Amino acid sequence: MKNKILSFLCVLCVCATLIACSLIVVKPNVLFRKPSGIAVKGVASQRVVSDIATWSVSVSSSVKLEDVAKRNVFTEVSTYSKRIEAYLLGSGFEKSEISVSNVSVSNLFKKNQNGYDTDELCGKRADITISVQTKKFDLLAKAVENADKICGGEIDVSICAPTYLYSGIEGLKLDLLAKATENAKLRAKTLAEAGGAKLGSIMSASQGVFQITQPLSTEVASYGMYDTSTVEKDVRCVVNVQFAVGQ
Asked: Among 234, 247, 243, 235, which Cα is nearest to 187's?
């Protein structure tokens, strides 16, 4: 009887050992867990000045189906685009700074009572866009201010607001990532030393989105943002870093 009990206990010990070994192999974190460490946010920002601007003017013309033989909307927008190009050249821009899109011609259809297109053709429409890309911000400001000179007649002219961009943004992002990580390390070290602990190495790190905003703006977006309405911009980077801690 004693031998049976002893044998049963031996079997239990072997089973327990095998289970423990399987936990170590399959899920070692069940038996060995790293401390949670310190999780902090690191922030870095820098103000930049845009070095390139774009501005575009769109021209469109439409004609009823019964007047197609009398008016050529393709010719109308093409001719008017040359007027706008001449205006830009006269404003001081180089021809290399100006680009003109191809003319786009589309059919117009009658609308139903709900405002949706039907299959009934009712006219033609042509569109063209003239754009300028420049570093001459002073000339651009004057051209935009006097843009009413290119409006008028039967042509529909749509004038967009200028957009201002900073060409070195990708290099700046890398620099800000490094600075934000250093900022996170400084914050974590302050917390650790205040609690009598020693800051260890990084356990995990993740990059947040970049916010490129107007100067001193607090506006943010979950997917990041890039404000193009101002010449000066604030570029802000946030990182989330977790550090190990020790005694």
From this structure: 243
